[in-house]
């Protein structure tokens, strides 16, 4: 394996252009010249013959060059029927088997690249075409793909093998063939999803000596272009994909209610609820996608309801600005709708969902808040005496008062009364603002509460500001849970959902106080995005708020995909005698995080005045000052 260690960079070549000279001296002829043959019949016969004998080619550079070209064609033209009809799947199967069974050949020069390319080509052709998937299985691709997935090579080959198996399992017509190995595949996918991040960290990202990184890994990650930063970024992206494709494979079985007894292992469910695509793979729902599939099954709901950690993580997701917030809400509603699990989760879930009862549209669904209300208040009047938790009892009674009794009272309220109430609410809000700037936080909070009790439900904008202002008071008093509740209510009222900048920033700080880094990060990123979307008249001299940059950098370090793997590795190493901490690695990682965080923000430029950090506002209130400085104003009372 020493010959595979990182040395000089060798670019991975793609298919030569028509004008390039690329002929190789072998009995089969040059593949690229064959592809240029104008006579389709002659070309097909020669390609078919080439695929049959391709594994016999001795020239490793030619093999890798041809496979790289085939990889490019499979990625760019995955539905083209020519190559699949001429034996490409048999050829790729033969090459993978040769790499697995003949280690001396595999480690000869550039042959180490071949199994990766072969598995990737199979996955690309079977990604969207069921006919190709059927043909691939008929050609025996499953067994060698399983061999790669078992770890017969490295995590790089596992990534493309699991991807290909996931595509084969996603079609009804091919699932039965994959399901022959369902027990092994499900256990393997569960293990990969749980351990792949730690494996990639130990085998690549966390290596102190960069020369210990396998050369072919670096070449495949960067395509021969880019340095250390590119390698680290792509390794993070690929590790996330390996985890998400493992989850996709599990989804294929769970949606057919297969192997649920394995998937619903309590330790795995806890890990599952904490998996997310991360910033490197934001198109995947991560673990919550599989959790939602399990929630559609009675046994799945029972197992999930028994895990306090899973329920807690679903509640946190439901009150976040994550793209998959609606999935978290779906899971909780499914658990509440089942009489067998409702009583197990009601006390925890109701304290979360009560803040979302005024949601309108989320995840493509309308009237989400009304659905939450109906589910929580189902038979409430008949069974409320059975609720032992006084806090839950009070929450449900307040929800009934807000969504039922109060809504009825205000339904026929005249315009004159509505306007009168609007004026009174405005005056009470101003009184609260004055108290706030005088440092009388409890008094200000009481005024905002009184204004909320008086404000008609239809005045959504006014209620957004009141909830957000009250949340600021609670932040200053150190009441993070109540601040999260009020900011979530404000963000549920905003249109579109989660678009009130100040509430996002305040909830980000509240989540930071509770140590919930991912939720804090999502809110802070959304806050910056809201700043960018301001009216053009407010964009003069715009810049990114420094406190938002600071928060994002902090939370990106805490939510780094390999953070837990790094901590476990350091813990293991610290137990060894004469161990010296990896100072160089820690510094390099922090610099990498700061670069990534700053890049995300600098892709757009914006600045929103009137928002300071919680620590700064606390200092201002203690001094009793109202600060007005150039390029920075603390204007708490500004509504939008």
Automatic annotation (TrEMBL):
For this UniProt entry, which segments traverse the membrane?
Answer: none
Q: Which SMART domains match?
A: TPR
Which Pfam families does this chain map to?
A: ARM_7
Q: Where is the ARM repeat N-terminal plant domain?
A: 28-264
Name this protein carries in UniProt: ARM repeat N-terminal plant domain-containing protein
């Amino acid at each position: 394996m020493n010959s595979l260690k990182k040395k000089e960079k060798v670019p991975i070549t793609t298919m030569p252009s028509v004008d390039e000279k690329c002929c190789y001296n072998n009995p089969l002829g040059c593949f690229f010249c064959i592809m240029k043959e104008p006579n389709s019949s002659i070309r097909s016969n020669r390609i078919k013959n080439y695929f049959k004998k391709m594994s016999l080619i001795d020239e490793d550079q030619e093999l890798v060059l041809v496979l790289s070209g085939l990889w490019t064609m499979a990625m760019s033209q995955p539905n083209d029927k020519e190559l699949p009809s001429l034996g490409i799947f048999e050829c790729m199967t033969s090459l993978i088997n040769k790499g697995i069974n003949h280690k001396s050949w595999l480690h000869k020069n550039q042959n180490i690249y071949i199994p990766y390319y072969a598995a990737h080509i199979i996955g690309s052709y079977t990604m969207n075409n069921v006919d190709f998937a059927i043909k691939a299985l008929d050609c025996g691709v499953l067994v060698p793909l399983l061999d790669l997935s078992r770890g017969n090579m490295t995590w790089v080959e596992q990534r493309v093998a699991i991807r290909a198996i996931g595509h084969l399992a996603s079609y009804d017509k091919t699932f039965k063939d994959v399901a022959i190995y369902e027990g092994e595949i499900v256990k393997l996918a569960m293990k990969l999803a749980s351990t792949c991040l730690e494996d990639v960290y130990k085998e690549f990202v966390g290596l102190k000596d960069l020369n210990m990184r396998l050369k072919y890994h670096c070449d495949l990650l960067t395509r021969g272009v880019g340095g250390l930063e590119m390698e680290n970024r792509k390794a993070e992206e690929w590790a996330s994909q390996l985890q998400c494709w493992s989850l996709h494979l599990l989804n294929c079985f769970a949606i057919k209610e297969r192997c649920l007894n394995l998937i619903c292992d309590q330790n795995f469910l806890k890990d599952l609820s904490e998996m997310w695509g991360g910033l490197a793979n934001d198109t995947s729902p991560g673990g919550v996608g599989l959790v939602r599939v399990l929630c559609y099954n009675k046994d799945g709901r029972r197992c999930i309801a028994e895990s306090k950690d899973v329920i807690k993580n679903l509640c946190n997701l439901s009150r976040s600005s994550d793209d998959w917030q609606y999935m978290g809400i779906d899971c909780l509603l499914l658990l509440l709708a089942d009489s067998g699990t409702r009583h197990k989760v009601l006390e925890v879930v109701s304290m979360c969902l009560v803040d979302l009862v005024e949601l309108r549209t989320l995840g493509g669904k309308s009237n989400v808040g009304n659905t939450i209300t109906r589910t929580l208040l189902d038979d409430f009047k008949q069974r409320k005496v059975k609720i032992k938790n006084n806090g839950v009892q009070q929450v449900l009674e307040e929800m009934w008062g807000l969504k039922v009794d109060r809504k009825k009272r205000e339904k026929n309220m005249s315009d004159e009364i509505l306007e009168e109430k609007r004026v009174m609410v405005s005056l009470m809000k101003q009184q609260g603002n004055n108290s706030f700037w005088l440092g009388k936080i409890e008094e200000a909070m009481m005024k905002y509460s009184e204004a909320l009790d008086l404000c008609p439900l239809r005045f959504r904008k006014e209620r957004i500001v009141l909830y957000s202002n009250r949340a600021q008071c609670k932040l200053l008093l150190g009441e993070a849970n109540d601040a999260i509740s009020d900011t979530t209510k404000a963000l549920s009222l905003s249109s579109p959902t989660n678009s009130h900048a100040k509430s996002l920033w305040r909830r980000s700080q509240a989540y930071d106080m509770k140590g919930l880094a991912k939720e804090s990060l999502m809110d802070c990123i959304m806050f910056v995005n809201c700043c960018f979307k301001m009216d053009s008249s407010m964009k003069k001299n715009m810049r990114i708020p420094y406190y938002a940059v600071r928060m994002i950098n902090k939370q990106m370090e805490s939510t780094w995909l390999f953070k837990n793997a790094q901590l476990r590795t350091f813990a293991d190493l610290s137990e060894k005698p004469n161990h010296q901490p990896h100072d160089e690695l820690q510094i390099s990682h922090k610099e990498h995080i700061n670069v990534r965080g700053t890049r995300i923000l600098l892709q757009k430029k914006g600045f929103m005045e009137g928002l300071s950090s919680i620590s700064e506002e606390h200092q201002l209130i203690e001094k009793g000052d109202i600060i007005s400085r150039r390029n920075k104003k603390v204007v708490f009372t500004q509504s939008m």
